[in-house]
Write a structure and sequence with these properties.
The strands form 2 sheets. Strands 5-4-3-6-1-7-8-2-9 form a 9-stranded mixed sheet, with helices on both faces. Helix content is about 25%, strand content about 15%. The chain has 2 domains: about 350 residues, Alkaline Phosphatase, subunit A; about 80 residues, Arylsulfatase, C-terminal domain, CATH 3.30.1120. The protein is an alpha/beta fold and about 475 residues long.
Length: about 475
């Protein structure tokens, strides 16, 4: 087999783009990510097209947008009836790498499989009766991963559990330590591969690390990381102008220091992975990606969480390093989640991109060559129970345009992200021609992806401030 590079793909959950020190936005402590960025290509305009956990993961795995891969919303017991989960028959990124001779490892949160019948062995029902966690059995549902150290969806950062290897559902590992540290310990062992006990050393490897922190609950973070922020108050930390003092709310006030502390904890453990690659002499032969499935509002526009079109939710970090192949610097490529599968497969020299993939291949651009660049990226907010409604929009280098479909009509939102980087003003009413132009841009995306949104008629249109 021709020599192919290794891949280390790290994507902590709910890690917003602004929470990287070198961005000079959030007052966070991220020395390892900052150092990594100086050695890498930083894609400043990367987005999560459907910014919430399961849909991102499905887009990453399949190279398809949600209406094609079937994962329109988070996978849990309320969405199973709509078959809102990754299908066993879908050909995924990892299936292609498996067939190309890669040894593959998946560590951490998966959140793509429906809850199992015997939920007494998983997290079980939450206070509202909804079941989120799941066990992925050995076999085709693991889509070509050889080394498995994973779980479905369980937000117990201090008391995580995992299913490893061929262990059955009633035999789970409970390491009793912060999940990010534990997963990094396992990742380091996998990379070092002492005595060949983790992987076939003659094969290139693909290592995917899916940390749950800095996802809520934010208070579940070791005190050592909180202490690094000293006596900083929420006024010191919530420094974005779109977080007005009277709109911060208890959630942002109470959690921002702990959210940033988790960011620092993720950074420290990411540094351990980078150090391990260097110590093992694998830097030159390994593509390393640091990104996230979506951001976190943390008080901006009076909100906590994700799914919305604002930059704190929609924009994600994306840093990629391949020494000697990808030049360090920045690029404003409007790369979306489905683009990652074809881009990485071609970058790694594997190719064999399935015909079902809807994303675009931008590998030539990452390598510093010419290539066709997108003029926009698609935004979606959609429910599994009503695939034709919700929100749709596009983000260009200058504007964010969103249509919110409601029972009483549509709301149109337009932000000028250059004149108004914190998206404080909706300028749709003042720019009817631009609204028309961006609506057509949006419709082109929706037609390409066969989105049922376009089939709904009889909706009145209004543009007003939100």
């Amino acid at each position: 087999m021709a020599k192919h590079p290794n891949l280390v793909f790290v994507f902590p959950d709910e890690y917003r783009k602004q929470a990287m020190g070198f961005m000079n936005e959030d007052p966070v402590l991220t020395p390892n990510i900052d150092r990594f960025a100086t050695e890498s290509l930083v894609l400043t305009d990367a987005v999560s097209n459907r910014p919430v956990c399961s849909p991102y993961r499905a887009m990453l795995f399949t190279g398809q947008y949600p209406h094609a891969n079937g994962v329109l919303a988070n996978v849990n017991s309320t969405t199973v009836e709509y078959e809102n989960y990754l299908q066993e028959s879908t050909r995924c990124f990892s299936d292609v790498l498996h067939d190309a001779g890669y040894h593959q490892a998946y560590l951490g949160k998966l959140h793509l499989d429906p809850p199992n019948e015997h939920y007494e062995y998983t997290e079980g029902p939450r206070s509202n009766g909804v079941i989120w966690d799941s066990y992925t059995p050995p076999g085709p549902r693991r889509h070509g991963y050889d080394f498995w150290h994973s779980y479905g969806c369980c937000d117990w950062h201090f008391d995580p559990h995992y299913w490893t290897g061929d262990d059955p559902i009633d035999k789970r590992l409970e390491p009793k330590e912060w999940s990010t540290k534990h997963e990094t310990d396992v990742a380091v062992k996998y990379i070092k591969n002492e005595a060949g006990q983790y992987r076939d050393s003659d094969k290139p490897f693909s290592l995917v690390i899916s940390h749950n922190p800095p996802h809520m609950p934010f208070k579940q973070v070791p005190e050592e990381y909180v202490a690094q922020y000293g006596d900083a108050t929420h006024e010191d930390l919530l420094n974005r102008p779109n977080v007005a003092v009277d709109e911060r709310g208890d959630a942002a006030r109470d959690n921002v220091k702990h959210y940033f502390a988790m960011v620092t904890g993720v950074d420290e453990n990411f540094g351990r992975i980078l150090d391990c690659l260097k110590e093992e002499g694998l830097e030159e032969d390994t593509i390393v990606v640091f990104t996230s499935d979506h951001g976190e509002m943390m008080g901006s526009h009076g909100q906590i969480g994700k799914t919305v079109h604002y930059e704190e939710s929609f924009a994600v970090p994306f840093i990629i390093r391949w020494p000697g192949k990808i030049s360090a610097g920045t690029d404003d490529l409007l790369i979306g989640t489905p683009d990652l599968m074809p881009t990485l497969l071609n970058l790694m020299g594997v190719g064999n991109v399935p015909e079902s993939v809807q994303g675009a291949d931008y590998s030539s651009i990452l390598l510093g060559e010419d290539g066709t660049r997108p003029t926009s990226a698609l935004y979606l907010n959609v429910n599994a129970s009503d695939p034709a409604r919700g929100m749709r929009g596009v983000r260009t280098h200058r504007n964010t345009f969103v249509v919110k479909r409601k029972s009483e009509g549509e709301e149109v939102v337009l932000h000028d992200n250059i004149a108004d980087p914190y998206q404080l003003e909706n300028v749709a009413e003042q720019n009817p021609e631009l609204v028309s132009e961006l609506r057509q841009e949006m419709n082109t995306w929706l037609e390409k992806n066969e989105d049922p949104w376009l089939g709904v008629t009889g909706i009145s249109v209004s543009a007003h401030l939100v």
